[in-house]
Structure formats: C-alpha cells, structure tokens
Amino acid sequence: MKIATTFVSVCCLTVAAGACSTSGSQTTATPGEQVLTLAAAGQGPAQAAVDAFQKANPGVVVKTTFTEDDASYQQQLRTQLSSGTAPDVFRMWPGGGNTMAVRDLGADGMLMDLSGEGWASGLSADLKAVTSDPAGKVVAVPVTIGAIGAVWNDQALAKAGLSKPATWPEVLTFCKDAKAKGVVAFALGLKSAWVTQLVPYALTASLVYGPNPHFTQQQLDGQATFAKSEWKQAMEKYLQLRDSGCFNDSPNGVGYDEQMQLLGQGKALGAVHVLSAVQSALNSAPQGTTFSMTPFPATDSAEATYLPVSVGIVYGVNAKAKNPALAKKFMQFLASSEGQALYAEESGSSPALDSPAFQPDALQQPVLDAVKAGKSTLYPDQGWPGPKVQQEHLTSVQELFNGTIDVPTLLGRMDQAFGEAK
C-alpha cells in the first residue's frame, strides 16, 4: 500500500490522520533505570507490548513515539535513520516493497544482525524470506500475520437476509441483491491510497499467485509481466465490481475512516480489507456488533480460492542503537508466546510464531485454516524488487477509477517500475 511515499502490505495496516504522539510510563529515567526508545506506526498494540515488557522488567523505561499515518511514519523514520537520530527499536514492513521494508533498510545497512538470537534459529524458510536482508542475515522479528479477505458485519448481513458469496458469479449476484435492499455490498475508500491495493491483492491470490507461486521470480527472470498475465483479468474484475454497483458511490472521495464507518454502522455489508481494520470498524459499530471473514472469490470455483496471508508487523533494531542489549531483550519478548499472543490480540491479527496462548476467533480461524490447507499466498509487494512498483500501483488505481487511464496503461506502468527496480 502506498502513495507518493508508500505504505504496504497490506498490511499493515492501520492508518488515520497524520497524528504523532509520544508516550510511555515515564519521559525521563531516574538513576539506575535503563532506557529503550521505540517508534511504531499505530499505538494500541505497540503500547500494550511496551506496558507488558516494562512490567516484566522493573527498572526499564521505554520512551515511545507513535505516528498514526503510515506514509508519515515511513518518511520520518527514514530521515531519522539517515541523520543518526532514530530510536533503538522500530516497527518495519516485511520483505520488500517500500522504503521502510526489511530488505530496503537492510540493504542500506541500517539494521542490526539478529541471526544469533535464539528465536531466529527457529524461523521457517517463509518467515526468513521476509525478515532477512539481502545478505541473508535475519534482521527482524516477525510479530503478526494478517490477511486480506471479505470482512463481514454479521448483524448487517443477517438483517439483509443475504449469504456470503463463495464464487465470482455469487459475488456479482450478491452486489445486485444488496443494492436492491438499499445497502452497499462492499465499502471502499480509495481516497486513502493504500486501500487501493486490497481488492487486487485479494483477486490475484486466486488468479495469479495461487496457481503460480513462482510468478514473481519469473518476473525477476524476465519471463513474465503484469500486462501479459492474469493481473489483467484481476484489474478488469476490479472495474467490473465498480460497474456492477458493488461499492459505495465515489470511492476516490471516501477515505479509510469513512469506509470503516460504513462497515461498522452496517451501511455496508462487507469490505475487502486487512483483518486489522475491524478495530476501526468497531469504533462506530453498535454495541454487540460482530465481524467475520471469508476469502474473497475470483473464480467460478470455491475450491480455487486462495487467501492472501502474509507477515504483517515486524520489528527491527537500529544498527546504531544506543542500548543494543535492551533492544535485543525486547525482541526476545516480542518473539515469546506471551508477546506474540498479546500483539496479535491487540492488533486483530494472528501470531507469526507459535503461541499456545493465542485463541483464534471468527476472523482469525479462516486465516489459520487457509495456511494449513495450502490455500494461502504472500502479499505480492513483499516480493517486488523496490517500492516504486507499489507506489505506481496505488496511484494508478486511483486514476483508473477516475477514468483517466485504462487497465493496459496501469499494468504497463507497473511493468516499467518493476523493470527499473530490478
């Protein structure tokens, strides 16, 4: 997910106004206390982890800075890292795809090597792929996994008397039936640029990356392109959803907050979104409202549906951290069963590492089921060679919905950005 600066994956995926705040149990340390500095995009889950860490480590003070807008956060952290004023620990994005992603920061030598930590030796190959720098050193701890699917307002869906679609034809029928009942099928807020990628990611999971998990490598090898692949069908289906009345009016003029209000208030039955967005929908939902998730179909067969599932939140340590030992200790906490369960519960996600303490709900169980059944794919941008590809995708989707470009132009731009980034 991005814009002129960039966001990501999806996931990631909490945004709001460009507000920034500093908090912590104390703002200055007293003699004998140890100080750790931390920055994150989004406050809630990170603050819960900080509070638990401080409670378990008397004498430790964590000074925190939270920025609610992903683009602002990425720009600020990049500037701080370049000037030597960055905090000890900070949230990043997995894999590649934006300027605050693991591979991009690792390539610039801004991250501490964590390969020797106990938790790092137990990472799976998939997890290592998105937490390692270009040299293969583990430089990030994976904290959560998230997914992009059809998120449902259960009470609104029941009131409308409609069933969750399991195939592409059922999606189009669902949109028609919802419109006849005076409600929006799927809320969409393209004014927040990072939201533009969510529907394409959901569609390409079943159309591109599920059937061909080697597609990105083929692109890197010069054997495949966006324009001459099922990405074209995915983007055409995105427009078909628009033209079939599946979305609210003028999605380019609707932001993320309003999108979540439509979902929370039941004015929209669902939204194709990252699961963590439910936390925002709950803010405007009547008491007792519950949400669930199903994979968003793109084909005529329910069995052919894949769910985009990727590591959502990762943390790394500044290569020039002022308190490296305490920073590594915080990494150990995040990798622990307690830390994983706490962060997942607070962020509406699932833990990236094994956590017996975590109990999945109606939103998270389908994620774990898809992974277990081999019906999951990574977010596409995590394999892209640089942030320009995602940036081009985000801005071009907005132009596509404005009618100023067509699908071939959009995919041509993405291919050009991909080639330039290789």
UniProtKB/TrEMBL annotation:
Keywords: Signal. It comes from the Bacteria. The keyword Signal applies. The keyword Kinase does not apply. Coiled coil: none annotated. Residues 1-19 form the signal peptide. Transmembrane segments: none annotated. This is Extracellular solute-binding protein. It comes from Nonomuraea monospora.
